[in-house]
Design brief:
GO molecular function (chain B): metallopeptidase activity
InterPro entries (chain B): Metalloprtase-TldD/E_C, Metalloprtase-TldD/E_cen_dom, Metalloprtase-TldD/E_N, PmbA, TldD/PmbA_N, TldD/PmbA_sf
Largest interface: A-B, 77 and 78 residues
Radius of gyration of chain B: 24 Å
CATH topology of the largest domain in chain B: PmbA/TldD fold
GO cellular component, one term (chain B): cytosol
Helix content of chain A: 10-25%
Number of domains of chain B: 3
Low-confidence stretches of chain B: none
Structural class of chain A: alpha+beta
Mean pLDDT of chain A: 93
GO biological process, one term (chain B): proteolysis
Order of helices and strands of chain B: HEEEHHEEEHEHHEEEHEEEHEEEHEEE
Largest sheet of chain A: 8 strands, mixed
Oligomer: heterodimer
Low-confidence stretches of chain A: none
Shape of chain A: globular
Protein name (chain B): TldD/PmbA family protein
Strand order of the largest sheet of chain B: 3-2-1-4-5-6
C-alpha cells in the first residue's frame, strides 16, 4: 500500500475515535520441497498476502484482516469494527505520517532463497535419505523437507511509526522410522535459522541424518522406565522447551493481564534457586526466533526474566504493557496478518551455570536422564504441563544405564522451578515452533543440562 | 474476482498453458467474533480470508502452488509456479476423476438465519456468558476465556476433467473457560457449544457445565503407581481416537508409518469395537458429498468391524498404488498437499451405560482430562500422557485424581477394550466415541 492509502485508513480509524490505529501489511513468498518414500512428493512455491487493521480503544482491541487490498473494502472493515462498539464518527483533522521510515533488509550474508532454483535443494534431501537408510536395514522410512519463507512487512500506526522489515527463515526437517517385528520408533531433527539459502549450504546434513537414524534404531529396542517421582537430569538444547512451556508462557503479559498465571504479582520475588538465570532475547544473530523489530514495530531487545532465582520481568506487548504496567519488551508477535499481535517469546533460554553433567549424574541414585525432549504443552492458568521424552536413560548409582522410551514428565511449572538445583555449563539453543493465541511462530528454546530434584515421570 | 471467477480463470489459464491434468481448491471465508473479560469486550475480530491452490500433473509430475491474491496476474503466476515445480518432482501414478453424480443428501451445513447474527447479538450473549460464568459457582476465581462468534465459508473443488463442485457452510460458537480454586488447588473448566442451532446457546447452562468440569477436579490427589482399569470419558475418548486416525490411512500404511500394515482381515481390536467413517450424516462437521479430489463419498466406510480391520482409507494416489478404487477420503486445503482423512470418525454405541462401565471393576479411574498429546505417537502407537479425572471404588466416586500418567500403546489398548457406553459427548465434533472401558493400563503417580 502507498503512504496516502495508509494515512487515509489511519485517519478513518482516528475519526471513529480509536485511541490507536495500526496497519500491518504482509507479503510472503514461501517454498518447500519434501521427499518421502525416496520420492520428491511435493514441491511448492506460493504467495501469501494480507492486511491486518488494529483499532485500540483504551486496552480493548478490535482487529480485522483480509487478503483483499481494495481501499474501499479496507475502509468498510474499519467502520464495521467501530460500529461493533457503537462508536460515532467525528470530523477531527486529517492524519499524516511524518515520513520517517525505518527500513530493515537482509544483511549482505543472506543468500536470497527466491533466487535459488528448487533443484538446488534436491541433493540435500537425497543425501539425508541415503545416509539415514544406510544406518540399518531396519530403517523403513525417511521423510525429509527443506522450506524457506521470505516475508516483507510494513507496519504503520497512528503514533507516526512506519517500519518495513524483510525477513527470511529456513527450516530443515527430517524424520526417520525404524521397525522391528511390528514395533516402530520415529526420531526427528528440525534445525532452523533466521537465514537464507546459506543455512542449507552450511548444514551438516550427513551428521544430522546419521544421528537421527542411529537414535531411531537404538530407541527401538529400549524398554520402559517404572513410572514414579524421581530426580531427572534434562539434556541441553531442546530440553529448554520445558522452561518455554512451563515458565515462559505464564510470564507473557497475555497471561498476566488476565490474572491467568501463577506468576502474577511475583515480580521481585524468589521463584527459583539462585543457580537459575533466564533470558528471552530477540537479538541473537541468526537464531530462528530472532527479529529486528517485533510485529508491533519495536526494535527487539534482550530481556532478563529471572536473575539468580528472582523474577525480574514479564514479556510485554503494547496492550499487555498498558494493562499490567510492565514496560514493553518488544515481544508483540503474530504468525501472520491473520492474527493480532500479543506477547510471545522469541529466543528463551536458561543461562549456563557451573555444574558438569557428570556431577549431576553422580548426585542421583535412581532417576531419569531425559537427553532429548519431544514436544510439550502447558495450561498457563494452572501451570500444569506435560512433556514427552524422546530419548531417555535410567540413571542408576550415579551412572547412565539402560535406554528407556515412552517417558512423560508432568507437573506444574512454578512448582518445578524451585526444584532445579544444578545448572550445567553446556548451554545450547534449538529451533522450534510455538503455537498460542496469535498463531504458530518461530522461536528458539535452550538451556544447559539441568538437574531437577523431583518430578513425576510417567512410565510402566 | 469472486471465488467462482477466480476458479474459472485458473481453469482457463491451465488450458492456455497446455497442462495435461490439474485440479484446484478454493475457499473464501468470513469470521467475526468477540472476546469478553470481566464484563468488557476486550477483543473484536473480523476477517475475510480467501485463497486458491492448484495441483498440476505435467507428464504425471505433480507441482503445487497457491495464491491469496485474486488478481489475474497473481493467479497466472500461481499456475506458472506450479508448472515450474514439476521439473523436479517424481512422477505420480494417478488420474483425476471426471464429474460424477453425487448423493442427494441435505447435509444441513448452512443455516441462513446465522447470517443475520451481528455484533449486537454477540455482545449480548458474550456479556451474559461472562456474568453467568462468574456466578456459576462460588469457587470461580477467574474467567479468562469467554468467546462468541460465527464463521461462514464457501469452498470449491474443480479440475481439468470437468469436476466443479461448490459448497457453502456456516457455524456459530459460544463458550467459556474458567478457573476454580479451593485452598491451593486451581483447576480449569471449559465448555464450548458450536453449531447452527443457536437455541442451544444458553449462557447459564454453558457456564454451569464449565464450572462443573473444573470443580469436579478440585481436591484432586495422585494415586499410587500400578495397573488400573480406566474409563476414557466421552469428552476425551475422541481425542485419543483422533490422535490415532492416521494408521488407518492407506498412504501411511504404504509409507511405513502405520503398524496396521498387512493386517486387513485380521483381528486388531476387541470384538466389541467398530470404527466407521460416515460422510453423509446431516449436521456432522466432517460430512461431505465429495472429497477434496472430486471423488464422491459413500455414506459409511467400515474401517474396523467387530475388531476386524476391514478397509484402509484411500485418496487418489494411494488407491492407484494398491490398485483399488479411491474411497473418497482425499483431503486438502488450498495451501497444502493432498492427504487422507476420515470424514466423520464414528465408534458405534455399546450396550452399557457409563455408570455400568464404572461399576465393572472395584477400582476404576474415570478419565475426564488429558494433559497435552506430546507423549502420543501415531506411528509407534505410544501413549504416555498426564491424565486427570475421578477415582471410583465399587462404582462410587471416591475422589478426584491428578498428577498421574497413563502409559500404554494404542494398538495394545484396542485389544483391552472391555466395554463401550451408549452415549456421545454433546460437542460439535467430527469424531464420535462413547465412554470406553479399558483394562490393565499402567498408571504412574
Amino acid at each position: 500500500m502507498n503512504q496516502s492509502n495508509i494515512e487515509t485508513l489511519i485517519d478513518a480509524g482516528k475519526k471513529r475515535k480509536a485511541d490507536f490505529v495500526e496497519i500491518y501489511e504482509e507479503e510472503s513468498r514461501n517454498s518447500s520441497i519434501s521427499l518421502r518414500d525416496q520420492k520428491i512428493e511435493q514441491s511448492l512455491a506460493a504467495t501469501d498476502y494480507g492486511i491486518g487493521i488494529r483499532l485500540v480503544y483504551g486496552t480493548d482491541v478490535l482487529y480485522a484482516y483480509t487478503s483483499n487490498d481494495d481501499q474501499q473494502h479496507l475502509l468498510s472493515l474499519i467502520h464495521l469494527l467501530a460500529d461493533s462498539r457503537g462508536e460515532a464518527a467525528n470530523n477531527s483533522g486529517t492524519f499524516a505520517l511524518p515520513g520517517d521510515v525505518s527500513k530493515y533488509s537482509f544483511s549482505k550474508n543472506i543468500h536470497d532463497p527466491r533466487k535459488v532454483p528448487p533443484f538446488r535443494r534436491l541433493e540435500l534431501l537425497q543425501t539425508a535419505d541415503h545416509i539415514a537408510r544406510k544406518v540399518s536395514s531396519k530403517i523403513i522410512q525417511v521423510g525429509v523437507s527443506a522450506s524457506d519463507i521470505v516475508t516483507n512487512i510494513l507496519i504503520a500506526n497512528s503514533e507516526g511509526l512506519w517500519v518495513e522489515d524483510l525477513r527470511v527463515r529456513s527450516r530443515f526437517f527430517l524424520s526417520v522410522t525404524a521397525e522391528n517385528k511390528g514395533e516402530r520408533f520415529v526420531a526427528s531433527e528440525s534445525p532452523g535459522a533466521l537465514k537464507g539459502f546459506e543455512f542449507f549450504e552450511g548444514l551438516a546434513v550427513e551428521d544430522i541424518a546419521r544421528k537421527a537414524g542411529e537414535r531411531a534404531l537404538f530407541m527401538l529396542d529400549a524398554g520402559y522406565i517404572e513410572g514414579k517421582k524421581m530426580p531427572v537430569v534434562m539434556g541441553n538444547g531442546f530440553g529448554g522447551v520445558i522452561f518455554h512451556e512451563a515458565c515462559g508462557h505464564p510470564l507473557e503479559t497475555e497471561a498476566i493481564r488476565k490474572k491467568s498465571s501463577p506468576f502474577v504479582g511475583k515480580l521481585g520475588e524468589s521463584i527459583a534457586q539462585s543457580c537459575l538465570t533466564a533470558y528471552d532475547d530477540g537479538t541473537i544473530e541468526e537464531q530462528y526466533g530472532s527479529l529486528k523489530v517485533d510485529d508491533e514495530g519495536m526494535p527487539t531487545q534482550k530481556t532478563l526474566l529471572i536473575e539468580n532465582g528472582i523474577l525480574k520481568a514479564y514479556l510485554a506487548d503494547r496492550i499487555g504493557s498498558m494493562e499490567t504496567g510492565s514496560p514493553r519488551t518488544a515481544s508483540g508477535r503474530r504468525e501472520s496478518y491473520q492474527y493480532a499481535p500479543v506477547s510471545r517469546m522469541r529466543n528463551t533460554y536458561i543461562e549456563a551455570g557451573k555444574d558438569s553433567l557428570d556431577e549431576m549424574f553422580a548426585s542421583v541414585d535412581f532417576g531419569l536422564y531425559a537427553k532429548r525432549m519431544g514436544g510439550g504443552s502447558v495450561n498457563p492458568a494452572t501451570g500444569e504441563f506435560n512433556f514427552a521424552v524422546e530419548e531417555g536413560y535410567v540413571i542408576r548409582n550415579g551412572k547412565i544405564s539402560e535406554p528407556v522410551r515412552g517417558a512423560t514428565l508432568i507437573g506444574k511449572g512454578h512448582e518445578i522451578l524451585p526444584k532445579i538445583s544444578m545448572v550445567g555449563k553446556d548451554l545450547e539453543l534449538a529451533a522450534g515452533t510455538c503455537g498460542a493465541s496469535s498463531g504458530s511462530i518461530p522461536v528458539t528454546v535452550g538451556q544447559p543440562s539441568l538437574k531437577v530434584d523431583e518430578i513425576l515421570v510417567g512410565g510402566r | 474476482m469472486d471465488l467462482e471467477q477466480a476458479a474459472g480463470f485458473v481453469l482457463e489459464e491451465g488450458k492456455r498453458y497446455g497442462i495435461d491434468s490439474f485440479d484446484l481448491i478454493a475457499t473464501d471465508s468470513e469470521d467475526i467474533g468477540i472476546e469478553v473479560f470481566k464484563g468488557r469486550i476486550v477483543s473484536t475480530e473480523t476477517s475475510r480470508s480467501r485463497g486458491v491452490g492448484i495441483r498440476v500433473l505435467n507428464n504425471s509430475r505433480p507441482g503445487y502452488s497457491y495464491s491469496e491474491r485474486f488478481s489475474k496476474e497473481a493467479l497466472s503466476q500461481m499456475v506458472r509456479d506450479a508448472m515450474d515445480q514439476t521439473e523436479i518432482t517424481d512422477p505420480l501414478d494417478m488420474e483425476l476423476p471426471g464429474p460424477k453424480q453425487l448423493a442427494e443428501v441435505d447435509l444441513k451445513h448452512y443455516n441462513p438465519a446465522l447470517e443475520k447474527l451481528d455484533f449486537a447479538w454477540m455482545r449480548e450473549l458474550g456479556l451474559a456468558l461472562d456474568h453467568a460464568s462468574w456466578e456459576s459457582d462460588k469457587r470461580v476465581e477467574n474467567v479468562p476465556h469467554v468467546g462468541v462468534g460465527k464463521s461462514s465459508s464457501q469452498s470449491l473443488i474443480a479440475n481439468s476433467k470437468g469436476v466443479f463442485v461448490k459448497k457453502e457452510s456456516n457455524v456459530a460458537y459460544l463458550g467459556t473457560g474458567l478457573v476454580v480454586a479451593e485452598g491451593d488447588t486451581k483447576k480449569m473448566g471449559s465448555y464450548y457449544r458450536s453449531g447452527r442451532d443457536i437455541s442451544q446457546f444458553d449462557p447459564s447452562y454453558i457456564a454451569k457445565e464449565a464450572a462443573h468440569r473444573g470443580t469436579e477436579l478440585l481436591g484432586a490427589k495422585p494415586l499410587p503407581s500400578g495397573v488400573y482399569t480406566i474409563v476414557l470419558g466421552n469428552r476425551i475418548s475422541p481425542q485419543i481416537f483422533g490422535m490415532f486416525s492416521s494408521p488407518y490411512f492407506a498412504d501411511a500404511v504404504q509409507k511405513g508409518s502405520s503398524r496396521l500394515v498387512g493386517k486387513l482381515g485380521n483381528e486388531v481390536a476387541s470384538p466389541i469395537l467398530s470404527i466407521y467413517c460416515e460422510a453423509h450424516t446431516p449436521d456432522y462437521p466432517g460430512s461431505r458429498l465429495v472429497d477434496a479430489e472430486g471423488i464422491p463419498t459413500t455414506a459409511r466406510t467400515k474401517v474396523l468391524e467387530n475388531g476386524i480391520l476391514r478397509s484402509y482409507l484411500y485418496n487418489l494416489e494411494s488407491a492407484k498404488k494398491d490398485n483399488v478404487l479411491p474411497t473418497g477420503h482425499g483431503v486438502r486445503s488450498y495451501s497444502g498437499r493432498a492427504g487422507t482423512s476420515f470424514s466423520n470418525m464414528i465408534v458405534p454405541f455399546g450396550t452399557k451405560t457409563k455408570e455400568e462401565l464404572l461399576s465393572s471393576d472395584s477400582h476404576c479411574i474415570f478419565v475426564t482430562k488429558l494433559e497435552g498429546g506430546a507423549g502420543c505417537s501415531a506411528v509407534s502407537g505410544e501413549i504416555s500422557i498426564g491424565i486427570q479425572g475421578i477415582y471410583y471404588k465399587n462404582g462410587k466416586p471416591e475422589h478426584a485424581v491428578d498428577r498421574i500418567t497413563m502409559n500404554t500403546n494404542y494398538f495394545d489398548l484396542l485389544h483391552k477394550i472391555q466395554g463401550i457406553s451408549n452415549e456421545y459427548s454433546d460437542s460439535y465434533s467430527s469424531i464420535k466415541v462413547p465412554d470406553i472401558l479399558i483394562s490393565e493400563i499402567h498408571v504412574a503417580g
